[in-house]
Design goal:
The chain contains 23 helices and 7 strands. By secondary structure, it is mainly α. It starts with a helix and ends in a 16-residue tail after the last strand. 41% of the residues are buried.
């Protein structure tokens, strides 16, 4: 073999080895991302149905059950977008209604968030992909509300999916990513009305990225030339290439998804409905108008005025939630953004874009939110997970390089910082999500408030009483549950069959979700004498009415529970004979 042949073979071997090594690194990174995703899903599905439904979960869950039964649905901005209504309706019909099944869509959508790191593989290195995935998986507030049937995590997750697919579109120029991203964007529009804030935030971040580009161009004339070239390339791609047609199809696809979800359903009533329109095509214009113009009017009627409360008070409240749940993420997001912008050769668009998105959400949400509820900070935390992952990867790299260089002090310091971050995130997540998911405080001394639990969460311990109600309902004919008192009274219980419910129905929450799920026949009265005339197996009253109701009942046991974290103590009177056999005591007076 000649020297030239040996040299050629050596170069070929080097190229093949480098390719094989790159594939091996990529494969290991993909396995790591999949492992983080499996962890993310496991954290969300573990004991998913153990916490009793929150007031808001129960309200929406009840309307889904009613929709599944009567086939009637229309958009109301006060109860947010249609995604969970339509998805959970079919899940309930397939698997039966339960707390677990109701929360499953949110758990799945958010649990898969770490996979988006793989779509960013042209923009993140292999360590960053894993660390970004870990923040998506285990951030305490994202984890807590990923186990909650609300739209906020769904909205944030769908927008990250949309961004990931659109970034992949720019990296590969493959049209399939345009349609995948558009689907995610359309689904985001079916979750919650503040998706419009995301659109504005994205537009602002894009302008700042354009400014980055202009700053890299030397002089004024060069910048003008740069803008002209960008405009010319865009025009050529749209009108002389294939992308114009793809954009048109993508836009039509977007509106088709939105119309499908927002179109009213009207089985059994003389109003326009989506499924009716397929047998009567002349109805489609009315259905489309209601799904678009009608939905927009409903949205503006409810949310068009923004926050009417003090900005500083709202900012302080939401800031407190951020500090308690995501301090490490906030600090590392700043580290990741600043290091990427000022230390590297060239700032990365993805890191800057997501940092701007999250930062503006922190300062902007106190302007627009109606109430400073803890779930609002999700809209800042989720995008900041990306620069935070970059910041954590810097610590990991620092430690790794220190070990290689034999710098024991730096390696130890880096390891301690990583362990501190991991320990803080893990401890907070374990305490708030698993140990105290429905407690006002995180300690026995009631000194450390649980910032993630909102007031509408039933106090810990209500589940056994709900199971007693379920057993009583299952083994009874006729009226199963009777509410007593002005707080709970509804003159005509049929008013509760369609939104909105009547009278004191809302003060009953979360009980209506459970009684509807159990198939209970419910009635109410504000006449205490009517309670004792022919009492059903379960009577529900406020704790303040306990004594007067007890006088009307014989052989009932009383179980006092909080329907919210405080101030809503309610007594469930259950007939001794209607209790499970192992819980029955000797029949006698109410205890």
């Amino acid at each position: 073999m000649t020297a030239d042949e040996k040299s050629a073979n050596a170069r070929r071997w080097s190229r093949e080895s480098a390719t094989a090594f790159g594939r091996a690194i990529g494969a290991r990174t993909a396995v790591a991302v999949l492992a983080v995703t499996a962890l993310s899903l496991s954290l969300r599905f573990f004991a998913l149905g153990s916490r009793a439904f929150h007031w808001d979960e129960a309200r929406v869950g009840y309307w889904i059950l009613r929709y599944a039964e009567n086939g009637i649905w229309e958009y109301h901005a006060v109860i947010h977008g249609p995604f969970v209504y339509h998805v959970n309706k079919y899940l309930f019909q397939l698997f039966g209604a339960s707390d677990f099944v109701a929360r499953a869509p949110v758990a799945v959508v958010s649990g898969l968030l770490p996979l988006t790191a793989w779509l960013f593989r042209e923009r993140l290195n292999r360590v960053e992909m894993v660390t970004v995935g870990l923040f998506f998986a285990a951030n305490p507030i994202v984890l807590y509300y990923s186990r909650f049937m609300r739209n906020d995590v769904l909205l944030a997750a769908f927008m990250v999916y949309a961004l990931a697919f659109y970034v992949r579109l720019f990296d590969t120029r493959k049209p399939r990513y345009l349609y995948a991203g558009t689907l995610m964007l359309a689904l985001a529009f079916t979750t919650k009305e503040n998706v419009l804030v995301y659109v504005v935030t994205w537009a602002g971040a894009a302008v700042l990225l354009l400014d980055h580009r202009l700053q890299l161009v030397a002089g004024t004339d060069d910048r003008k030339q740069f803008l002209r070239e960008q405009a010319r390339e865009t025009w050529t791609a749209l009108w002389h290439g294939r992308w114009g047609l793809h954009l048109v199809f993508g836009l039509l696809f977007f509106f088709a998804v939105v119309v499908f979800f927002y179109a009213p359903r009207s089985r059994g009533i003389p109003e326009p409905g989506l499924w009716k329109a397929f047998s009567n095509p002349g109805m489609f214009p009315a259905v489309i108008e209601e799904a678009t113009v009608g939905s927009w009017e409903s949205f503006m009627g409810k949310w068009g005025e923004g926050n009417q409360k003090s900005y500083l008070d709202t900012f302080e409240s939401l800031g407190g939630v951020l500090r308690r749940s995501s301090l490490a993420l906030l600090v590392l997001a700043g580290v990741g953004f600043l290091t990427d912008r000022y230390v590297g050769d060239k700032p990365r668009d993805l890191v800057a874009f997501t940092f701007y998105w999250g930062f503006v959400s922190i300062i902007g949400y106190p302007v627009i939110v109606e109430n400073a509820f803890p779930w609002e900070v999700i809209h800042a935390v989720v995008p900041l997970a990306i620069p935070a992952g970059v910041g954590l990867a810097i610590l990991v790299r620092w430690g790794s390089e220190s070990v290689t260089d034999g710098d024991a002090v730096s390696a130890t310091l880096a390891a301690l910082l990583v362990l501190l971050v991991a320990g803080q995130v893990a401890a907070t997540a374990a305490s708030t999500t698993y140990m105290h998911p429905a407690d006002q405080y995180l300690d026995e001394g009631a000194s450390e408030r649980n910032a993630l639990v909102q007031y509408g969460q039933p106090a810990e311990g209500i589940q056994p009483t709900l199971q007693r109600v379920r057993y009583a309902v299952t083994n009874n004919d006729g009226t199963d549950v009777l509410y007593y008192g002005s707080d709970f009274y509804v003159a005509d219980e049929s008013e509760n069959d369609r939104w909105a419910a009547g009278g004191g129905w809302y003060d009953r929450l979360p009980i209506p979700w459970y009684t509807e799920m159990y198939g209970a026949e419910v009635d109410s009265t504000d006449d205490v004498q009517a309670v004792g005339s022919n009492p059903p197996p379960v009577v529900v009253a406020r704790a303040g009415d306990r004594d007067v109701v007890a006088q009307q009942l014989d052989g009932y046991r009383a179980f006092e529970e909080g329907l919210t974290l405080w101030g809503s103590e309610t007594v469930f009177f259950v007939d001794e004979d209607a209790l499970p056999p192992e819980q029955r005591a000797q029949r006698g007076a109410v205890s």
